Amino acid sequence: MTDTVFDAHSPVPHPSQRADPVGQLPRSDTVWSALLGYWDVLPLERRGHSEGIVVTAGSDLGWLPEVFDLGFCVTFARDVEPDELLVRMGGDPGAAVSLSAAEAETRELEDEDAGPIVRVGSYPGWAFAVEIWGAHGTRDEVVRAVSAKTEAVVLLRNANAVKRFVHAQDGVIVCSFDVDLPHLRTGSDPDRLLPHMERVGLAPEIGPDVDASQAMLSLAVSAFGVGLPRDEVQSGVLPASRVTTAAGE
After folding, report:
1. Can you give the residue range of the structural domain that contains 46?
2. Would the pTM of this model clear 0.85, i.e. be above it?
């Protein structure tokens, strides 16, 4: 058997995508655990391709489609406090209550006409807002308000499998596209993220072996370093409020 050798700068495939017998080791095996541990500490730019399959680098977000299988919309704002993000999205921090994901879902279903419920929190360098059902964060006026004097990223996957990626800066949408049609981009600088899109398999067009949802999440992590505290979002409680019209609209 010939060992696979990587130089100091080459992309390294995920252990599960190795073509050699190591990739077939059971998950309980000590070697498998060591390989996964090595992968976890690799810089994002070293997590590369294997056998033509695009590796998803978005380990901090890749769990979202499984946990929120009926859809999600996550809005990130750089260097903004969670309360400020809530205000920019049209919420009232003074009326916020601590809710779990299940509680937020129940309350929203009880009165769907009252506006979507968002739960807010922080991740190093970013504030985030999570919607389970809605797409409030993708509305142009909301994106403009959230990104005023800062930078925003919005990730949407709804129950109809529509997936959308939006990046905005200083109140201007820089790049926005349907993740299943990533070559049809709009915005003030639609090619700004092209190197990152190529890396995750979304450019020049989406690759045949690419999971569009995971590629979208990987793009956000690779290009912006965003993430979510999984325990808090999935099973913990976060400040939550209904949102209506974005601030300034």
Report:
1. 1-53
2. no
CA atoms within 13 A on the CB side of 150: 19
Q: How many domains does the chain have?
A: 2
Phi-psi region of 187 (alpha: psi -120 to 50; beta: other; left: phi over 0): left
Per-residue pLDDT tens over the stretch 205-232: 998 899 999 999 999 999 999 999 999 9
Same domain, 22 and 79: no
| pLDDT for res 249 | 61
Domain end (from 29, 53, 77): 53
Distance of alpha carbon 18 from alpha carbon 14, whole angstroms: 7
CA distance 204 to 241: 39
Tell whether 41 and 136 lie within a shared domain: no
For residue 136, what are the CA distances in angstroms to 95, 102, 112, 116, 129?
19, 19, 13, 7, 10
Q: Which residue has the higher pLDDT, 153 or 133?
A: 153
The answer to whether position 249 is within a domain reads no
Tell me the per-residue pLDDT of 88-129, one tens digit each, with 9 for 90 and over: 999 999 999 999 999 999 999 998 888 899 999 999 999 999
Among candidate residues 245, 241, 2, the one with its CA nearest the CA of residue 119: 241
Q: Characterize 51-81 residue by residue with b for buried, 16 or more Cβ atoms within 10 angstroms of its Cβ, and e for exposed.
A: eebbbbbbbbbbebbeebeebbbbbbbbebe
